[in-house]
Each structure stands twice: as C-alpha cells, then as structure tokens.
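Entry type: protein chain
Record version: 2
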Amino acid sequence: MFDNPFRPEGWEQTDFFLDMNNNHIPDNMDFTIDFDNNGIPDSHDLFFDMDHDGIPDSHDDFIDLDHNGIHDHNDMFLDMDHDGIPDIHDSFVDLDHNGVNDGVVE
C-alpha cells in the first residue's frame, strides 16, 4: 500500500463516514479502496495516478492533486477540497464533500 497524501502524519479522522473513492462505503470499512478511481484496488494498482494526468505517480515529476497548475511540492495554496481556502488555513476540510469535516492534524 502507498502513503496516503490525504492523511499526513498526525492526522486524526473526524468523519466516520469518510469515503475518498466515492463508492458509498466508508473508507474504514472498505476492503477495496481505489483512491485514483481507475477500477483497480490500490493494493494491486501498479499505475496509481492520483492527479489523473495519465502518468503513474511513481514516475510523475509533476504531481498536482488540486489541479491548479502548481506542483504540489511548491503549492503554498494547496486546496484539496476545492472550497477556495488553502488547506493550511482551512479549519473545515471536506474531501468527500459530505458536509462533515474529515479530520484534523495534531
């Protein structure tokens, strides 16, 4: 399994029903998690591509998860839930858009 970019070290989940792959099964109960939504469970996905640019992340020099044209490594305004508030200043990050704050980093 890969390191989850949405759950950094120190992250504590507050949304019990967080469903990042939108298959209507909460991630903590989902045995076939597919975060890049390509139909292949992440545990078997050799071409995992979170930013959907057609380049597997293991070979991608330009990863842009929020699709704003700025490499995530240099993106001071990374906004994964697309609410217009950079995640570093966002106290309510809702990646699966279910209206519940997904978690906090402590």
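Comment: Residues 8-106 form one domain.
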